[in-house]
Specification:
The complex is a heterotetramer, with two copies of chain A (330 residues) and two copies of chain B (206 residues). With 330 residues, chain A is α/β, with parallel strands linked by helices. Chain A is 32% helix and 23% strand. Chain B has a single domain, classed as DhaL domain (Serine Threonine Protein Phosphatase 5, Tetratricopeptide repeat, Alpha Horseshoe). Classes of the chains: A alpha/beta (330), B mainly alpha (206). The structure holds adenosine-5'-diphosphate (2 copies) and magnesium ion (4 copies). One magnesium ion binds next to loops of chain B.
Chain lengths: 330, 206, 330, 206
């Protein structure tokens, strides 16, 4: 076990203590598992609350701040949070204008957020929900759990967060969040499996020199396993998978995301290949973000997310944001 | 009619379940590692430990209240898919038991049927989807006959998930690759019914 | 080889192409190996130029922008750049107010920057140099190569960059850079060795369950190797090593830096332990930065840098910065 | 006096050196991996390939000009510690040769002594610090006697670095742990003098 931890049991609480120390602009409730804007509730503003299993940092706690999330609820590693967290978080950040729950589409997250929504409404909080399900690696069907939520979450949280910051009412923020999700598609690739502290060994076997195409951010297996491919080949495969499904007719935002264990140097090199494919396909790129944003602990690998934008969404993307992991504008 | 069970019986069952889950956590995680995300053992450990602690501190007076409290505690401490599902199972079963201070096996089976239906409704899964329902549904059915029959039915139901392709939960992402593995949730359900039967047997024939 | 690359030979050039695509606010000369502010030269402003071997991203290219570096010169992986790069970069960003070279203390970097300084002066550019040597793991002596430059580089580049942005003349910017360096100390720990693309296998052998205390950012070995330690124990060891040498009498800036392969979740948890030790030692922490800033490819591990600050240095630290990797203020 | 060497001789030497460095890059990287950062092979490959390319395209007219051009090219393409050091060695040696169109071995030895002194001054290292100087200094001394003697002295100098503790360059961070490994730069220096002797022998007795 090559881990910088005390014991597996305290990993999440330790991280929250460390976040609290590093970010005085956030309120971190270690006991209850809530990271919130210190200035929340912001009068008249719709609040955004997200959350999910830990191990995907900076998602979601690193996205809390002006222009993005009002609060985040981290669960145990790879385990969705419990409803109490979301209810408490909602109560803490609701100004009366209502709360949007941003939920990645995993059975656990969906069920816990659903329960939380019911409980929060019992407490008189107006709640709307958006489900993020952008992962094209998973075959979608009415009879399955549906597509997973991955990199698209960043776009939904940023853009809906900007709309909320600009004063949009709950229904409108919800509609924008849904629109963003409907225009986001992702595809992930693993070069190695991640190791959870509790298990202490890789969650799946991936021999060096092989890769898992279509991997999920909890190490869920993907479409197929192949022998090693070059950055160029991976970009072709991943972008094609995304584009075939999205079929964008306008410009896109591109997220070239690292899974946690791949050096930034390689991610930038991969971005060069992604941009090449997009140019070849005639798809204009409005903005590009390269880095580790939606990770899977120490997994080596990457994902590509494209989000088709119109003028309004692009303006909201460019709007100022001030969180630990995403910052721009004034 | 066999004899009737009081609140203490259900507390003892859930304490035994907590021990069993603790003992078998490695197996549950191993199974979840193959077709899920390797946390089912830790999830249930955390949840049932909290249930046992709660019941030891504030033991409710009726069987229904015990199950409702346990279900709530699972929902508040487990997270993941299994937290709301097992939490709902116990909570809705407990609610169905009402205020009764003693409940017999058949009444329990009826109440469990309500709880299992709620699980199916919540998660949208049916028998054959390779989930905990593959153990729960036959177990509850067999509970009408005896605790032992329920235990056996749950075990067989869990084993029967091996050749299935998952259609719900995280294992569904695997598609055909989910075939050949036993479902972790069905396995923990079998564990719960084994402990239920064990507790009933220790306290006299049902 | 679990690498997201095409071939080892093009890794740095590919990354620069990817940087160019992601950051229209920068000028990236892939051929010559120069990353510069697009608005350089800024009239009347002292320019800061740094550089070094690649593989430490976001250092240095990710620190180019208003409030920090004017230009960065990436060398081959773990190999200092050549003088031509620095001379060209200096010529491109010099407004006439002079250029400060920020040089990490490695023989290769020192020699190449020295040659560059001579050549640049021949071209009529006023050049000053600051050597960063903050790594307490290395025994310092007149007869050795001296201490290595690691995490302190970030503080030197940020704070001197703010001084330059505020209009300080070259001599003053140089003096501030030296002051910052003299107040910075770092200590690094490896949980795994990094793998360079050219070599394709780990640069040193570190069995799982052992760690290298005092490791360098090129995988240079450190003070000693030990069996696995907890996050708590590592924090005690690293902070003590830094504090014994720095003996701060005032508040410090703290950088809890990841080496590239350690999840952010663990880094935050490690920060909690670092803050605990600092509190125990009675050292007030003015600001904390947690993340992957001065990395060593995919190495698992971390480093702690403390920088003792007075009011002026703290003000310069807080001053706005707008680079790919470090952004705050307006 | 042996015979004198023209610009072509030095071009051929450096071409042979490029081939040798290419051939031995793995060894050099391996040695640098043990006590450095595993790039010495790649560094010199890149540099000497660029030197060979430059000399093939624009062969300078005098021995001095060849060495100055090669040294500049190394400085412009290698980076790291070895780039400026080897670059300075060739550049300063070349400058010391002046405009002469032919130079004899002894004159070359004198010029090399100037170049080696510049290396020592630039890097601040002395013989015994476990650097390229441990091969260069004895080699240049022995060159006064013969090319073969220079080659042997460089090889012995490189071997003699094994028991030394490094005091300069990256290996110095290792302290006592640098003992027991051969210095990569001393090894590449020995390679250069081996190729020098080989080129001289191929073109007649020195
Ligand atoms: N929709 C569902 N209906 C019923 N049971 C489900 C459903 N989804 C998942 N499960 C059960 O939950 C188990 C996984 O629980 P657990 O690992 O604790 O949660 P998670 O999948 O969130 O990590 C599965 O093995 C399955 O039996
Ligand atoms: N100060 C110095 N003086 C002379 N030679 C040195 C000095 N520092 C390093 N060297 C030589 O350089 C070699 C390393 O070269 P190389 O690996 O290419 O550069 P780097 O150390 O920058 O990675 C060492 O083996 C040593 O022989
Ligand atoms: Mg889970
Ligand atoms: Mg699971
Ligand atoms: Mg090097
Ligand atoms: Mg080297």
């Amino acid at each position: 076990m090559r881990m910088l931890i005390n014991v597996p049991e305290t990993v999440v609480a330790d991280a929250l203590r460390g976040m609290a120390a590093a970010h005085p602009e956030l309120t971190v409730d270690v006991e209850r598992g809530i990271v919130a804007r210190r200035d929340a509730p912001v009068a008249g503003k719709v609040a955004l609350v997200s959350g999910g299993g830990s191990g995907h940092e900076p998602l979601h706690g690193g996205f809390v701040g002006p222009g993005m999330l009002s609060a985040a609820c981290p669960g145990a590693i790879f385990t969705s949070p419990v409803p109490d967290q979301m209810v408490r978080a909602a109560a803490a950040v609701d100004s009366g204008a209502g709360v949007l729950f941003v939920v990645k589409n995993y059975t656990g997250d969906v069920l816990n957020f659903e329960m939380a929504a019911e409980l929060a409404e019992d407490e008189g909080i107006q709640v709307a929900k958006v489900l993020v399900d952008d992962d094209v690696a998973v075959t979608d069907s009415l009879y399955t759990a549906g597509r997973r939520g991955t990199g698209g979450t960043l776009f939904v949280e940023k853009i809906a967060g900007a709309a909320a910051e600009a004063g949009a009412p709950l229904q409108r923020v919800e509609a924008i969040a849904r629109r963003v999700n409907s225009r986001c598609r992702s595809f992930g690739v693993a070069l190695s499996a991640c190791t959870t502290p509790a298990k202490g060994s890789p969650t799946f076997e991936l021999p060096a020199g092989e890769l898992e195409l279509g991997v999920g951010i909890h190490g869920e297996p993907g479409r197929e396993r192949r022998g090693m491919m070059t950055s160029r080949e991976i970009a072709d495969y991943a972008v094609d998978a995304v584009v075939e499904d999205l079929r964008p007719s306008g410009p896109v935002l591109a997220l070239i995301n690292g899974m946690g264990g791949t050096p930034l140097l390689e991610l930038y090199g991969f971005n060069a290949e992604v941009q090449r494919v997009l140019t070849e396909r005639g798809i204009p790129v409005a903005r590009t973000l390269v880095g580790n944003y939606v990770t899977s602990l120490d997994m080596a690998g990457c994902s590509v997310t494209l989000c088709e934008v119109d003028e309004e969404l692009l303006r909201l993307w460019d709007a100022p944001v001030r969180t630990p992991a995403l910052r721009w504008g004034r | 009619m066999g004899e009737a069970f009081d609140a203490g019986f259900f507390v003892r069952w859930l304490e035994a379940a907590a021990l069993a889950v603790d003992r078998e956590a490695g197996l549950l995680t191993e199974l979840d590692s193959a077709i899920g995300d390797a946390d089912h053992g830790a999830n249930l450990q955390r949840g049932f430990a909290a249930v046992a602690e709660l019941l030891a501190k504030e033991p409710p007076a009726t069987p229904g209240a015990v199950l409702v409290a346990a279900g709530r505690q699972l929902i508040s401490t487990v997270g993941g898919a299994s937290g709301p599902l097992y939490g709902t199972l116990l909570r809705r079963t407990g609610k169905a038991l009402g205020e009764d201070e003693h409940v017999g096996r058949e009444r329990l089976a009826e109440a469990f049927a309500v709880g299992v239906a709620a699980v199916s409704q919540l998660g949208g899964a049916q028998v054959g989807d390779k989930t905990m329902l593959d153990a729960l549904v036959p177990a509850v059915e067999a509970l009408r006959v005896s605790f032992g029959a329920a235990r056996t039915a749950a075990e067989e139901g869990a084993l029967a998930t091996v050749p299935l392709q998952a259609r719900k939960g995280r294992a569904s992402y695997l598609g055909e690759r989910s075939i050949g593995h036993q479902d972790p949730g069905a396995t923990s359900s079998a564990l719960l019914f084994a402990e239920l039967a064990g507790t009933a047997r220790a306290e006299g024939p049902a």
